[in-house]
Amino acid sequence: MHLLVLFHILQSLLLAAHSCPSLCSCHDGKSGIAELRLVQCSDPGITAVPISVPADTVKLRLEKTPISKVSRAAFYNLSELRFLWLTYNSITLIHPSSFVNLKALRELRLDGNLLTSFPWEGLRDMPRLQTLGLHNNRLSSLPAHAALFLPNITYLDLSSNRLTILPAELLDLWFPLPGQSEGQVERRILGLHDNPWLCDCQISMLMSLSMTLGSAVVLMDQLLMCSKSLSQSELLQTQAELSRCMRPSVQPAATRVISPMGSNVILRCDATGYPTPTLTWIKTSTYTNCCQQDNLDNSEQLPRILESFMQESPRVGVRWSIISLNGLSYKDAGEYRCQARNMAGISEAPIKLKVMGITKLPHLPKKSRKISSKSPSKYRKPYQISAITNVPSVKDNQILSSITPFSSNQAKKPQSLVTFLEHVRKY
Hints:
Elements: H1 2-18, E1 24-31, E2 34-41, E3 57-62, E4 69-70, E5 83-85, E6 93-94, E7 107-109, E8 131-133, E9 155-157, H2 168-174, E10 188-191, E11 197-198, H3 201-210, E12 217-219, E13 225-227, E14 235-236, E15 246-252, E16 256-260, E17 265-274, E18 278-286, H4 292-297, E19 304-306, E20 310-315, E21 318-325, E22 334-342, E23 345-356, H5 366-374, H6 377-384, H7 394-401, H8 408-411, H9 417-425
Parallel strand pairs: 2-3, 3-5, 4-6, 5-7, 7-8, 8-9, 9-10, 10-12, 11-13, 16-23
Antiparallel strand pairs: 1-2, 13-14, 15-17, 17-21, 18-19, 18-22, 20-21, 22-23
C-alpha cells in the first residue's frame, strides 16, 4: 500500500517536471542527437514569470506580456537553461538576484522593455553568458562598475536607449593596452547607436579605434549620433568638433638620478593631456653591471607597477605624481617609467636611477706603511687613493714589504701603482 502511494507521488512529480505551464506552449527540438525542451509564453493573461516551467527547459521565450518585474530567483529551477528571451514585455524592475543558478545560460535578451536601470552585478550568476540584449529600453546611464561584469560578453546591444556618457572603464575593457590582455583578444559586437551621446573624447576614441584595421570591436552602426549638449540637436559623430582630445605628454623632473646607498630619493613627473591623464609608475629593469650578487639575492619580477606616494591634478588637463624610495639599496637601481594615459593615447618617459656604494680604506700592515713612507712622494699619492681605484691585495703588500724602493732616477718617471706592481712581479 505504501509503495503504491509512493509510486503515485513520484509519478505526479515527474509529470509536473515535464508538464507545460498554463497559457504557454512547449516543443521538443533537437540539436544534433540531444533533445531540447523549448517553452514559449506570450499570452496577455500572463502577469508574472511562470513557476511551473519544466526543469529540463533549454530555451524560454516570455514575450509580449504585461509582466512588469522579475522577482528574486525567478528561474532557480532552470539550471539547464541556455537561452532566455524576456522581450517586449513591460518590465521596469529586475531584482539583482533574479538570475541565480543560471550557470548554463548563454543568451539573455531584454529588448523592448521599460528598464531605466539594469542590475549589472547580477551577471555574476551567469558565468557563461555571451549575449546580452538591452535594445529599446530607457537606460539613461551606464555605470563604470558595469565593466567589472562584462568581460565574457561578446555581443552587447545598448542601442535605442537614453545613454549620454560612455565610461572610460568600458573602453579599457574593449580596447586593452598591449600586454594587459591575457591570450588572444575576443572580437566583440556592440550596438551603441540611437543614443543621445555627448560629443566627448570617449566617443571619439571609440569611433577611431573601432575603425582601425584588425580592431577587436565591431559596431553594428558606425554612424553614431551625438550632441554637444542634451538641449542641442543631434549631429553625426563624424562631424563633431572634438579638438580638445589631446594625447598625453610626460615630462620627468630628471631623466638621470645618482644617489648614495642608504639615502632617500623622490622621483617626479608631470603630464598634460585631455581628458586629464592618469599616471602610473613602472619599474622596467634593474642594473646588473655592479653588485650582481646583491641583485641576484634580491631578484624581483619585472616590469612591476609601483604605488604613487602622491598624485594630484591641480587643474583640468594637468596631473603630477611622485614616488618615494627610502633607504636606497642596489636593488633599487634601474629604470623607472612614468606612464600617462587617457582616451587619446599613451605616453611615457624613462628615469634611470643609479645607486653609488661607499668603499672603506684598507688598513695596511705596519711594515708596509713604513716602507711605503720611504717611497718617493709621487708614488705615495696614487697609493693613498687606491681604496677608490685599485686596491692592492695581501700578496701585493707582501711584495711591497720585501723590496727596496726605486732609485731617484726611476722615480722621475711617472707611474701608477698598477705599473709599479707589475714591474715588481717580474723579479
